Amino acid sequence: MIFFSKAPLRIGLAGGGTDVSPYSDLFGGAVLNAAISLAAHASIELITENKIIIEALDRNEKQEFATGIPLPTNGTLDLLKGVYNRIQKDHSLPSAGLRLSTFVDAPAGSGLGTSSTLVVAVLGAFMEMLQLPLTKYQVAQYAYDIERNDLQLTGGKQDQYAATFGGINFMEFYDADKVIVNPLTIPSEYLRTLENNLVLYFTAISRDSTSIIPEQVNNVLTKNETSINAMHHLKEQAKMMKEVLLAGKLDELGEILDYGFKQKRLMAKNISNNAIEAIYDAAKNAGATGGKISGAGGGGFMTFYCPGNSRNNVIETLNSFGGDVKKYSFVDNGLTTWSI
């Protein structure tokens, strides 16, 4: 028997960073994101050998362990180990051996929520195996708890919910881990236009959010007015983006993205850099009306809104920087599990 799962990555459109504690606890956060056809995949195969095999096929990493003991989290395959350890603790896995395999359609640290989406996918495979009756909110919170509390990894709250729910959502974040997911019903013609005009570009610039997010957190704790005010503006940006999408005023979307790009740079150092600024300016000169850095910033993916017939010109310009324009489509489905 093999148990499968699949969870979508996401494009953050507005409000990113306001889902990170303590800002969301103190002021409430708001994010608008869209699930896309790139995904994290996981499978669990029951095997006759008395051992636990875990492997990330896209990273060519593999480790083996004895059954029945906690797996060591030491910097290699820790996301997979973290989910296994938590499931073993909470639900007592069978003593038989298993092979846990994963594959992600985008590089780690790319800014599309890869880490948290991978946790959701692995959790989904175990849910299918054990037939755990969890709601979408429970799955997302479970994944968040494993990543932030068990593994002590920094980050926000939006990615686990985007991966679990799918679709395009306006999300609200409050203290005590309260999250409200508001699915947006956008007319198909608006959605097709958005999908056509929004270009997803992998910069090929190395990215490490481990220094950016702690600085963002510290800026809130130390009451850095510049950083906090920027987060306030980004929260308002998410509300503006929601209204524009629902009303079909897509010509305003680029300006809203541009507004957010300027605010996000004020949240912490290293969110942007000279290479990112050069790409951003070139895309705008080629016809994009705005864009944003995905995730915490520093590199990875960027998105640009290209109205009218500017898309091809923008893509040609972006290609000159040595990165890669990634094809995608929006998807309604979130976490999906099955077995054969």
Question: Can you tell me about this structure?
Answer:
A hairpin with a 7-residue loop joins strand 9 and strand 10. The chain is an alpha+beta fold and 340 residues long. The protein folds into two domains: 184 residues, Ribosomal Protein S5, domain 2, CATH 3.30.230; 139 residues, Alpha-Beta Plaits, CATH 3.30.70. It contains eleven helices and twelve strands. Helix 2 crosses helix 4 and helix 3 crosses helix 5. Strands 1, 2, 3, 4, 5, 6, 7 and 12 form an eight-stranded mixed beta sheet that branches. Strands 9-10-8-11 form a four-stranded antiparallel beta sheet.
Task: Give the SSE layout.
Blueprint: E1 2-14, H1 23-27, E2 29-47, E3 51-56, E4 61-66, H2 78-91, E5 97-104, H3 114-130, H4 136-150, H5 158-165, E6 168-173, E7 179-183, H6 188-197, E8 198-202, H7 209-221, H8 225-247, H9 253-264, H10 274-285, E9 290-293, E10 301-305, H11 311-319, E11 324-326, E12 336-339
Parallel strand pairs: 3-5
Antiparallel strand pairs: 1-2, 1-12, 2-5, 2-6, 3-4, 6-7, 8-10, 8-11, 9-10
Helix pairs in contact: 2-3, 2-4, 3-4, 3-5, 4-5, 8-9, 10-11
Class from helix and strand fractions:
alpha+beta
Order of helices and strands: EHEEEHEHHHEEHEHHHHEEHEE
Straight-line N-to-C gap? 6 Å
Within the CATH hierarchy, at the fold level, what is the topology of the largest domain? Answer: Ribosomal Protein S5, domain 2
Radius of gyration: 20 Å
Mean pLDDT, to the nearest integer, reads 94
Q: What's the CATH first level of the largest domain? A: Alpha Beta
> Treating each run of at least 4 consecutive H or I residues as one helix, how many helices?
11
Shape assignment: globular
The number of strands is: 12
Helix content: 40-55%
How big a fraction of the residues is strand?
15-25%
CATH architecture of the largest domain: 2-Layer Sandwich
